[in-house]
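Dear colleagues,

I hope this message finds you well. In preparation for our joint manuscript, I am sending the Transposase InsO and inactivated derivatives (Nitrosomonas halophila) sequence together with its predicted structure, so that both groups work from identical material. I would be grateful if you could confirm receipt.
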Amino acid sequence: MCQLMGVSRNAYYDYVRCADNCSADPCHLEILGTVRDIAKSSHHSYGSRRIGKALNARGYRIGRWKARNLMQKAGVQVKYRKKYKVTTDSNHKQPVFENKLNRQFDVARSDQVYVSDITYIWTQEGWLYLAVVIDLFSREVVGWSMSTRMKVRLVCDALQMAVWQRQPQAGLIVHSDRGSQYASKQYRQLLKIHGFIGSMSRVGNCWDNSVAESFFGSLKREQIHWQCYLTRYAAQQDVLQYISMFYNSHRLHSYLGYKSPNQYEAEIEKLKNVA
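The corresponding structure tokens are as follows:
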């Protein structure tokens, strides 16, 4: 067999000895168990890069390629993105805001710039619509709202929740697409009451709101597309758990140096107190 495969007998037996030692090594088995735990807690959404970073955080000095090898040995597989369609209705005659954000996604402080968007979730009872508000500084979802109808109240409730939770000051930029909900009189009045500055993407340009789009991509790839919701309530509870129990508190973000939004904000706040 070695002659057929073009390898030496010594190399083959070295490989067999290494495999036997690794399989019996308690430390190796512990790492494999940790890889499985990380994969399970991340809803099998982490690739080798994030698995490696999570192992580093737990004290294992593992690189990306070693992490990929460990994932294979642990039988860990990653969920992949499925395509979804855009639901923005920008074909209206209501006034729109200038693009104040202009793809400046790097923000120096929290509660300076929020982005917002709407997506849809299918259940056996029909569609459930989700609106979110994200703080660009930490990528934390600071406000959200769900409804059976994609009306103005959906986006207003999400922003009201963000205001209630974070108490942002006047001058905050709130960016969205040109959907009719964000161009409505009620939404514009809400911005005016709090002294916020409206901002909207250019026509047909999803990259102008890519942070919100990225969040929805993660939510659907890591959670929604692998479920079959019998009721809107079941979908609602699943989304709430994903946002509050995983995304904000545990999910590692490459933009944040592989920290979760909550961890990133806590570390920045700690540095401020020390200074």
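For the figure legend, we might mention the following. The chain has a mean pLDDT of 86. The chain has two domains: 2-74, 113-274.

With kind regards,
E.M.
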